[in-house]
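Researcher: Please translate sequence to structure tokens.
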Amino acid sequence: MKRKKMTETTSPKAVVLAISSEWRELAEAGKERSNHIPSWSEREEEAADVIIATLTYLEKIGCNDIEQLLKDKVEFNSYRVD
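Model: Translation complete:
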């Protein structure tokens, strides 16, 4: 089955659904080598797809500095107690 490509006209909601789909694929991925990129495991490849879809979502909703957001979130999480 051919994957649907995200384009500039893809809605943020559709991108969220794509993220969900990628998470399901990650949950089912194994330790064995990927058929698509043999130098990586299925888990690694699918985790990369989750990241790519999530970065696409952040861009879609107008995040101006994704790198800084990630740095700020990592720092916040390091002090979080809940």
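Researcher: Any highlights?
Model: The mean pLDDT is 90.
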